[in-house]
Amino acid sequence: MSRIYIDAQMPRIMRAHNSWAAAITASAEEVGLDRKLVELVNLRVSQLNGCGICLDTHHRQAIAAGESEQRIAVLPAWRHVGLYSEVERAALGLAEAITGLPDQETQDVAYAEAAAVFNDDQLAVISWVAVAINSFNRVSITSHHPVRPR
């Protein structure tokens, strides 16, 4: 079934959405969050949501930020491989909890693990990164944005 691209149909809303995301990106830099970490969160959330266009986009952005192909390839198994730092694991766990909204206890554990390694500003920004990519995933999935061959 053909769908409208909701972002193109309502460009004013999409411009506001993009401005909001730009503020989150700027805040990540301001609070000292590494761009690779932000892209790992974007990739992991997009994997969970099955958003092809966001996976394609953030794979390229992660590589541009210096992330390795190996760590991107094994990202779905981040808990079971020794390639991610404590900070990265905390961010990924929090992002997964925000994305999947599991039971309260699971959310509390993820939050506590993240709070142990991030200051309050960083914790807030990592949360906003996860909220934002979830939002972009939903725009692209709803619109059936295609992944174009390169």
Helix segment count?
8
Helix content: over 70%
- Unreliable segments of 5+ consecutive residues: none
Order of helices and strands: HHHHHHHH
Mean pLDDT: 97
What class would the helix/strand composition place it in?
mainly alpha
Number of E-state strands: 0
Cα separation of the termini: 25 Å
Shape: globular
Strand residue percentage = under 5%
Rg from Cα: 15 Å
Q: Note the main sheet.
A: none
In short:
The protein has 150 residues and is an all-alpha fold. 72% of the residues lie in helices and 0% in strands.
Structure write-up:
With 150 residues, the chain is mainly α. The chain has 8 helices and no strands. The chain is globular. The mean pLDDT is 97.
Spell out the blueprint of helices and strands.
Layout: H1 6-9, H2 11-30, H3 35-49, H4 52-64, H5 69-73, H6 86-100, H7 104-115, H8 120-143
Which key phrases capture this entry?
mainly alpha; 150 residues; 72% helix; single chain; globular
